[in-house]
Amino acid sequence: MENDELLQRFLRRYDKPATVDAYPRDLQQFTQFVGKPLSEITAHDVAAFRSYLTFAEWRRVTQHGHYSPTSTGRKLDVVRRFIRWAVGEGVSSIGEVELQAVTATDRRVHNAARRHRRRRPT
To answer: Which one, 27, 39, 40, 102, has the greatest CB density within 10 A?
Structure first.
């Protein structure tokens, strides 16, 4: 199943006008950034997208970039929701702790998730 079809199935769950407007753009940006099918996306891909957004946010402050901290948080939130949904659909296998670590916008949440991940037996 292609990413576009999966995106459409996921987005049918939302009906608020602001959500219907922003979420498709955010998810399209994510899937274009990653450039591979959802089934092949890893936590490293999500972390790379987070780094890209963080850099764009920093650039906005220093050189008139594009994303505010609120926009960055929204983009990461919808990616997290989408991946959780995809795991439930059996399309993705990214673990919850790993997903929390790479999408956290609060440094304390990020560090706690990373500590938890290190304690898990491999």
So the answer is: 102
Digit-coded pLDDT (tens) for 87-99: 999 988 888 877 8
Query: Per residue in 69-80, pLDDT tens?
Result: 777 788 888 999
Cβ contacts of residue 75 below 8 Å, gap of 6+? 26, 29, 30, 53, 67
When divided into structural domains, the chain yields a total of 1
User: Is 4:38 a contact under the CB 8 Å cutoff?
Assistant: no
Q: What is the pTM of this model?
A: 0.73
Tokens of 11: 């987005």
Domain of residue 54 covers: 3-119
